[in-house]
């Protein structure tokens, strides 16, 4: 087995439009869910709480142009700084740059007769800038930035009409970037929908008794849309590769009790595998049907839906990996800690970052083997990192050995997984430049190799400074993972 990283391994980084771009109301763009989410400075870092978004909250935000209390409206101004930022990524030697296109820029009214040319020109420029540096652009089509107009006009993905609107959007960008973009991801971390239905599905929780059913119906529409997007991508460009993506919630049984093992199996199925089984195997798994029956969930599935899902599955498995969790049949005895999108039970054998997210490098190797064994498809690690508090020194340097140590240990485990025989084709570290946090809307929680001089309230010069980890990652890419 190959004990080294493949020669064509795709090293790089990943950003999202809704956290980096800013320019929330420029060149025709309309509001998205992240831009109506307020920053809460009193946020409890140790527990993850989902903000309940309703129409009253949306209407309040629509009448308020503030960019301080709504940080994702300003982002890090990537809309205007993309050239210099991408140049810094190129200096590190990126082979790939993952970025997302904002649906609300391309179709500001959701159902426009023609796409917004100013938006497409901006993404032309971003993609061309990547290609200029021999950097492959990897595009996420929908990344946690549900357009408000699609909620107001259609009720989000609960409405089947969004399938055709999404495909129209896909057709525009597939044709526009034919021959330039090879790798596409249909929906970012699609399994987040059950916990964050507003920003992923545009389905608001207004107290409906069948809200969970509505979420799964919206998911069904996304599964159909993903399969039809795959078909469309194949028709437009033979080299297009379409990936699924989940945030993998790796879990272990709290004890060796069989009941804890069953709890772990159930968590893994409905938090992770359900989504990948549909997108990569092409069918609803048996255990999901049992779950639906137990929870009185009845899906409306039209003729041809299951055939489309079966015939047009994803080409690779995309995943983010941040933290693991534990499962138990008796959760009363366990302590909660924060995690990606939702709180998890604390594993007493793992350290955590300052936000309570547990750090588990070995879990990445375990997860890669688990996924590859089940799907036998190439795996692309699309997000991996951890948030830290960084200090800008008087000489404008940033010493961040903790970030280097976190990434080193995870990349070591990725290398071991490749040695196990797992086919991993790329690694786009999350947040190579600091940006607004998705979960907390703060700037203090920093991921990047590049420091952005901006605080939680938008104060600062916005200048970019290289951290110690910048040079470490540059050397890692140069040596293709040999010098960790």
From TrEMBL:
<comment type="similarity">
    <text>Belongs to the glycosyl hydrolase 1 family.</text>
</comment>
<dbReference type="GO" id="GO:0005829">
    <property type="term" value="C:cytosol"/>
</dbReference>
<dbReference type="InterPro" id="IPR017853">
    <property type="entry name" value="GH"/>
</dbReference>
<dbReference type="GO" id="GO:0008706">
    <property type="term" value="F:6-phospho-beta-glucosidase activity"/>
</dbReference>
<keyword id="KW-0378">Hydrolase</keyword>
<keyword id="KW-0326">Glycosidase</keyword>
<dbReference type="InterPro" id="IPR001360">
    <property type="entry name" value="Glyco_hydro_1"/>
</dbReference>
<dbReference type="Pfam" id="PF00232">
    <property type="entry name" value="Glyco_hydro_1"/>
</dbReference>
<dbReference type="GO" id="GO:0016052">
    <property type="term" value="P:carbohydrate catabolic process"/>
</dbReference>
<protein>
    <submittedName>
        <fullName>Aryl-phospho-beta-D-glucosidase BglH</fullName>
        <ecNumber>3.2.1.86</ecNumber>
    </submittedName>
</protein>
